[in-house]
Amino acid sequence: MHAGINRVGAWEWEIPIGFIPGMRVPGRFYLSEELAGTLEEGALVQLANVATMPGIVKHSLAMPDIHWGYGFPIGGVAAFDLQEGVVSPGGVGFDINCGVRLVASPLTETDIARNRRQLVEELFRAVPTGVGARSALSLSNRELTDLMLTGAAWGVKQGFGMESDLVHSEEKGGMKRADPDAVSGKARQRGMPQVGTLGAGNHFLEVQVVREILEPRAAAAYGVSPGQICFMIHSGSRGLGHQVCTDHLKVLEKATRKYNISLPDRQLACAPIDSPEGRAYFGAMASAANYAWANRQLIMHALREVLHGMYGIEYEEMPMVYDVAHNVAKIEEHTVDGRRMQVCVHRKGATRAFGPGSPDLPPEYMDVGQPVLIPGSMGTPSYLLCGTKTAMERTFGSTCHGAGRVLSRTQAKKSVRGKELRDQLAKEGIYVRAHHDAALAEEAPAAYKQSSEVVRVVDGAGISLLVARMEPLGVIKG
Amino acid sequence: MSFIELDHTADVLLRVWGGTLDEVFADAARAMFQIMYGTCDAGEIVRTVDLEAEDIDSLLHDFLSELLFLTDAENVVFCSFDVDVRGNRVSATLKGEAFDPAEHSGTIVKGVSYSGPGIVKGDEGYVLEILFDI
């Protein structure tokens, strides 16, 4: 472990106040000895930088998929006092409400064995992917406003889903404080033709098989069983979210000076939560988050149509297990040192993991806690976990979000060619479809930390518990 | 072309150098389009950009962000960048072609971050390190 870092638990480490000047609280992060070698000094400094921000409560936190980003480290979690604290796009990222959705099906591995390739090709045709992808839907400005106000519920109202989809989502698929007036014309222009598109990079739609159940009671509540085929959607708020971040970063840079906030990194630009600039960013960010929920709702609709067409199964037989955001800031109530308080929790590459009994959960999940979805990298397993009381006590109800990269794009491309990777995955029984093979190499499994090791840490630390392991059978990429 | 991609695990970190600010701005733009679309050599579509900012780093940030907006909103891939930086103002003429999924392959640049030292003037010109979120 790096110099100056103290071990405070089997899986928990502390960056003490004083590691860099101006820290208001200590930094805490979760990591195994095995993953310690992947920890970059830059990520530690970023975690310490967050600890200098006004109104930060208790700890600047990071999950075991911590790595070097910009502003907050990826895997970073920080809660801010609503009176004294700030809100920062650097704690959310450009892809607002990039997130993951898991859809169950009545299919088994045998059912899709013969036409798996066709299934993946049909999905690739049904869901626009990659750079420059355009939606089949053409939204008016007014429709976009409604969509940003209500999120996934907009999709359900248009016939692209069921009411039950909404309760199986963080925030019921829509944040309440959305303010579309704070979203620029440019962001709208980018968002209008892109709703229902997957994006590029690490975004995907994957056909998975539930290979192992690790916690039967929670698995039963979530409706997953061994051998079952399910589908995972990983996408975000597309150009609209990117533009919201870009626009408000500029405003908040000025606000940082206006409110005399001293920061060690320009990318942490922020404003008091209850200031005009802070409220505008929050309202625009919530609008973009809602756009992302609507986006995943439309992608799920396209998926369900393909499954209905190929296998004759009905919507009711394809329930949504859950949908989680992993780049977002939210107002939540937490207990801090025995006192209930409202805080603004930023999760940047981290997932909400509310424990049993949390008010936001639907009745069927109330006893087992919130489902947590951890996507693997291409070709590696994904995991279903459940939120815990420990997460509520230690991490503001948060856990990891994925594998976390260990190789840069250039290193990944040097290590394997896209075509070789496709052939290698095909040998392992995974059919990959993308516009260009070159893009595959950048997302090679070797470029990521082992997702199994990342989830082992959060399970060991108790901030979420393993429920099921899913293996990929087919994937469409941007 | 005067830029290289440095190792950065999560995103794309670029180092760009040039004798003049015009060259640094143009090469940063060229690099960003190469990440998104690979190579491109035609140029029937012409756009102009005129921007002003408080300082040179903000100007570069705004310039690249504006190009991200244009390419995403209009589905145009820009190939050539004629840039004129004067003080904290930039005027640029961009030439490009319509996006074609069969021709252009790369990854989406989600945003231009303020991370890194920005533009630094040295003895032989300017050096820039800039981080793109992908």
Shape of chain A: globular
Mean pLDDT of chain B: 91
Helix percent band of chain B: 25-40%
CATH class (first level) name of chain A: Alpha Beta
Q: Considering the protein shown, what is the CATH homologous superfamily of chain B?
A: Archease domain
Kindly report the average pLDDT value of chain A: 95
Features:
heterodimer; A: 478 residues; alpha+beta; tRNA-splicing ligase RtcB; eight-stranded mixed beta sheet; seven-stranded mixed beta sheet; B: 134 residues; Archease, Possible Chaperone, Chain: A, domain 1; five-stranded antiparallel beta sheet; three-stranded antiparallel beta sheet; 2 helices; 42% strand; RNA ligase (GTP) activity (chain A); manganese (chain A); RtcB (chain A); ligase (chain A); nucleotide-binding (chain A)
List the helices and strands and how they pair.
The complex is a heterodimer of chains A (478) and B (134).
Chain A: E1 6-7, E2 12-15, E3 27-30, H1 33-36, H2 41-50, E4 60-70, E5 72-81, E6 86-87, E7 99-108, H3 109-113, H4 116-126, H5 141-150, H6 152-157, H7 163-167, H8 185-191, E8 204-213, H9 216-222, E9 228-235, H10 238-258, E10 271-272, H11 276-311, E11 320-325, E12 327-336, E13 339-348, E14 351-352, E15 371-374, E16 382-386, H12 389-394, E17 398-399, H13 409-415, H14 418-427, E18 431-433, H15 437-442, H16 451-461, E19 465-477
Parallel strand pairs in A: 3-4, 18-19
Antiparallel strand pairs in A: 1-2, 2-3, 4-5, 5-13, 6-10, 7-9, 7-11, 8-9, 8-19, 12-13, 14-17, 15-16, 16-19
Helix pairs in contact in A: 4-11, 5-11, 8-10, 10-11
Chain B: E1 3-6, E2 12-18, H1 21-37, E3 45-52, H2 56-74, E4 76-86, E5 89-98, E6 111-112, E7 118-122, E8 125-133
Antiparallel strand pairs in B: 1-2, 2-8, 3-5, 4-5, 6-8, 7-8
Helix pairs in contact in B: 1-2
